[in-house]
Amino acid sequence: MNAIETRGLTKQFGAYKAVNELNLSVPAGSICGFLGRNGAGKTTTIKMLVGLAKPTSGSISLMGTKRKFGYCDNSNIGYLPDVPNFYGYMTAAEYLDFCGRLYNTDNKKRRSRVDELLKQVDLFGTKTRIAGFSRGMKQRLGIAQALMNEPDVIFLDEPVSALDPIGRHELINIVRSLRGSVTVFLSTHILSDVENVCDYALIIEKGKLLVEDTVENIKKQHATDTANIKLYSAADSGKFTTLMQTQPKLTVEELEPSEFLVRGMELHELNKQILPALAQADIAIESYHAHVPSLEDIFLEVTKHA
Amino acid sequence: MHSFLVFLQKEFAEQLRTKRLFILICFFAFFGFAAPVLTRYMQDIINATAGAAAMAFEMPPTTWVDSWAQFYSLFGQLGALGVIMLFMGCISGEKQSGSAALTLTKNISHTSFVMAKFISMAVLLIISFALAVGIAYGYTYFLFGYAGSLAGVLLGATTYGLSLIALLGLIVLSSALTKSSVASAMMAFGAFIFFFVVAQNIPGIHAWMPGTLAGQPLVLLAGEELQLTSVFGALGLTVLCLIGAIHTLKKQEI
């Protein structure tokens, strides 16, 4: 079953299409990274999904239920906006309790859920009012409030973009801990986080969906392993080029007179074939860097052609 | 209904914890104290501040009716402005800060959101105004020996209270229509000028306007009949404003 499904989802501001005919199918239970550069349409898409923005056209289904702008049932979703703002005069526990009461959760269950979530986001025992919270504490509270109703799907809109490395690490660990319990729709432009925590990814550019698959499949389909080889002497360049021509699967790109980029095989095959061949041909190398492309490389490659 | 009550409770707690209740009570109470004192000692104040030149100017003796006239005059000018300033961000402020986005993606309807805000502010307004009327009554009695019949004062205060509620309706609608507190204050102030001042001079509709209702306490103190059309007009305007605010918020992107 898909937790999130959109068909032809479009949002137009005048002549500008911020989101263009988006067809998403996010499997239930996945942690889905929603990637795109600034202005690609991520926040607009999320706002339409949670019912804060009206689609120009298209349909949205969450957990099989259609959503209509202005009449949305939000009992099974959680949402953390990019810049969350709470009632500053409340404490974290009071705010979560208020959220729980909005969902009509019974007293005993609500209190234990508040404690459980505060422990999960490391805010248990904090008596400071929210107005005095750091950005990181606010984001952690934001995740807790999004989980208060034990939702089926939570939408996190760039939750780590303004955090320092420690805050980011803490937040990503919290998201990782949600695996299996809830579908997470994580909008971000920090690709290493998606690589570390997500099992599914979507890449959008100019409001259009470019790639949608599991992170593993995306890497398989779009990635090309490479080896960067720098020769000890430029005099060996001709010998090196001739040697590489004997390997029909490989393509060689000359970066500098003594530096080459070789691709065409999976990394372990590249290593197995090239290094012994170089030794046998008596070509001395200064450096050999094998490179498995990251999601970032794929993202840059895919969006370059969009 | 449950989420409405939860949100209403939160709104009341907010009025207390952000000291809005305290501010409004002090602001209104000041009018309750100031109006009788200013009326009673106006001649002395003028003499003390303007000196010998003013000694020649003799004011007619003031009465308890003048005290009430001063009280409602202060409310009509500074009171309305204070109420607009205090409540201008009731909805627009939450939209601007982002807290409305968090709340409205939970289990609460737009109707409950607007109504809880309106009712909590109305209660706050009524409590503060009632206290101010009580203070003005006591002080007027103390300084002038009489403050009017209790029933007349209460009926006058009720009619004026209704006009304040109509003003609150205009503020809620302005706040729902705009996305910043400043814009909503300007819109509410414009609406106040129209409905409370300008429309009073438009033949045919003036009798229905909340501005006419705001003038009723003095009409009642003068022994004249209550103009019921202004009561219905103010109530109707309030209801229309609330329906407009709910509808606007429902159709609005946040």
Task: Give a nutshell description of this structure.
The complex is a heterodimer of chains A (306) and B (254). Chain A has 10 helices and 15 strands. Chain A is α/β, with parallel strands linked by helices and 306 residues long.
Report on the structure:
The complex is a heterodimer of chains A (306) and B (254). Chain A is an alpha/beta fold and 306 residues long. Chain A has helices spanning 42-50, 92-102, 107-120, 135-147, 165-177, 191-197, 215-222, 237-245, 267-280, 295-304, and strands at residues 2-13, 16-22, 25-27, 31-35, 57-62, 65-66, 77-80, 153-157, 183-188, 200-205, 208-214, 226-231, 251-256, 259-263, 285-291. Helix content of chain A is 35%, strand content 28%. Chain B contains 13 helices and no strands. Chain B has helices spanning 2-17, 20-40, 42-50, 52-55, 64-87, 92-97, 99-104, 110-144, 150-177, 181-197, 210-214, 216-221, 228-251. The longest helix of chain B has 35 residues, at 110-144. Chain B is elongated, with a radius of gyration of 20 Å. The mean pLDDT of chain B is 90. The chains are: A alpha/beta (306), B mainly alpha (254).
